[in-house]
Specification:
alpha+beta; Alpha-Beta Plaits; two-stranded antiparallel sheet; 3 helices; 6 strands; 29% strand; RRM_dom; RNA-binding; RNA binding; Nucleotide-bd_a/b_plait_sf
């Protein structure tokens, strides 16, 4: 079964000065965005340095990855990739545990 490209992107290594609005503005030239959000610390409400951007269509998400992955933004080298769903994260964690047991 072919893996379907997703429209939600994971953006890491963001500056502490990045806001939800600046994240939206950074990605908006590539297409229609459904959502752009930073993940924040529950206690301090400070951004943790990563977030998610969801596009309306896969083609726009692919354009954003090609253009922004490995780019310097606000003095930081950022990485942009397709976000993993919770099942993929669990599988990755289980395979790492199996590798460590050897």
């Amino acid at each position: 079964m072919a893996k379907r490209f997703q429209t939600q992107l994971f953006v890491s290594r963001l500056s502490a000065y990045t806001t939800d609005r600046s994240l939206w503005q950074l990605f908006s030239p590539f297409g229609q965005i459904k959502e752009a959000r930073l993940i924040r610390d529950h206690e301090t409400q400070r951004p943790k340095g990563f977030g998610f951007v969801t596009f309306e269509c896969e083609h726009d998400a692919q354009k954003a990855i090609k253009s922004l992955d490995g780019r310097i933004v606000d003095g930081r080298l950022i990485f942009v990739e397709v976000a993993k769903n919770s099942e993929e994260v669990k599988t990755d964690m289980n395979s790492k545990k199996a590798d460590e047991s050897w």
